[in-house]
Fold this sequence. Notes:
heterodimer, A: mainly beta, Neuraminidase, Rossmann fold, five-stranded antiparallel β-sheet, five-stranded mixed β-sheet, 6 helices, 30 strands, B: alpha+beta, 4 helices, 4 strands, 37% helix, 12% strand, disordered N terminus
Amino acid sequence: MNRFWRYLPLIVLWLLSAPLHAALTIEIFGGGATQIPIAIAPFAAEDKIKPGIVSPIVAADLNRSGLFRLVDTAGGLIPFENKPVAATVWTEWAGRGADALVTGSMAVLPDGRVEIRARLFDIVKKTQLAEFAEIVAVPELRAAAHRIADMIYEKLTGTPGVFGTRIVYVIKQGSRYALQVADADGFGARNIVESAEPIISPTWSADGNQIAYVSFENKKPVVYAQTLSSGTRKLLAGFKGSNSAPSFSPDGQKLAVVLTKEGGSQIFLMNADGSNLKRFTKSFGIDTEPDFSPDGKWIIFTSDRGGSPQIYRMAADSANPASAERLTFEGSYNVSPHYSPDGASFVFIQRNEGKFNVAVQDFATRQVQVLTDTLLDESPSFSPNGRTILYATEVAGRGILAAVSSDGKVKQRYSAQAGDVREPAWGPLPVLSTTAAPAPR
Amino acid sequence: MNQMNRNLMLSTTLAALLAALLSSCASQPPAPVAVEDRPLPKPVEKAPEPAAKPAAINPLKDPKNILSKRSVFFDFDKFDVKTEYTPLVKAHADYLRANAAAKVTLQGNADERGSREYNLALGQRRADSVGTMMKLTGAKESQMETVSFGEEKPRATGHDEAAWSQNRRTDILYQGE
């Protein structure tokens, strides 16, 4: 909270400078045990081009991760470009308590695009750690800022950053529902699908270009897929009865889906084009919420075959429905499993004494860690670097999105301006950017 | 005093009380009644007289008929039809058996707690278990369709047990309703 207040002016500046997009704003609670003190100086010429669009976003990204502590940069000494860093620069920033320093510059090119350069310095070791240079159009400045933050995050923590990723969720405003995609920091939210009937269970394809979801627009649940680049939609599963809980395989070739066409809710597999439908589970109970392992070899799912909803695992190519292995044993309600990106653990919702919380179970040790203490948590999913879990919860009767670090130490709340937000899913890392890189100087 | 005498005495007392009550009503002038200067409603001539044609009442809409009751409620995370609802489910099954052209949609619902997908499956089971009971009582499978809304269409929008208990429910809807 302390940090929140200290950087409130910065956040306010950031908000004021934001384009007029729908947005979810984020509040941070707690912080990592060890936070890297980092100074992010305003970029040269930044204010002349688009104030607040690059360095404040880099700062906000890093701050939100909970792994960094922002150091005041007012009046700080900035090293010259293309020249050895003066000794006074190291002592200046060491004196301010920074372990790392980020500087940068922006310049408008004759074609109107902007050249951005950024450098990351290790103040303790008195050396430059990384350099960033891109030429982007003005509307892409924000995305470039996220890429700078990703570079800094990866250099200093050893884990890829996810500031350039996107999230999908459902927002209910009045009696209207919309499927929205936004940047991971909640900005740039746009409607992908709008409906007067409920929408649930959006899920990403591995390439990030398709979102499958369940719509009730036909007065029953039916699975559709929306292609983001073209805006086209196709029917994936519209069989007799209910169609729900879609999940793409990591190679994009297969889709797992829950159908009731043969009685009961059972998991089926089909090719992504809808062909070759095959029943996967065969139980007398509920089998739902399938999720492929990152290597595509396994499917974890929720089943009440043992008398209460628990999480099970089955080989994705198994022809033997009886081969399912039960994974959860603590408590009488464990649902909504999703693999971690390294496949070593899974996140799920566990009910404890009437509360529904986000928990993580390790495959090897079977150890369970409950990460939240709210009342009604739902639909958790990992960030693509495995460091954060995005989920839905409820505050004062209103649905909001929240995130918790996978060690449970940093918590964030996204708040929408209006409406009920639910059913989030964190998208994959972006495919390689096609932005031009300027010639090295 | 034996039982018969006691009963006789009781009925005599009641008769006396009743007589006293009636005579007091008759002997007293009627109490003044506030009168509003309002025209009497005109009788609608074309309206059917339900009292005269009792057969015209739709049993599905008659509040006195069990068939007008359409909701079966469930316990948390349960989908078995509780004994208190079996007469209701059986009455609808009997109606379906007697009216071969009638069709129902059974809409299963769940409360808001927990997974939306699991609740969708749970709602489906709640619809299915009402459907199964109807089939066992003689309704045909072709007369019914079971669907689930999960927790997506709550009847009560509160966030407490009073609301949740209203939302763990299967609704019986007849075709055209």
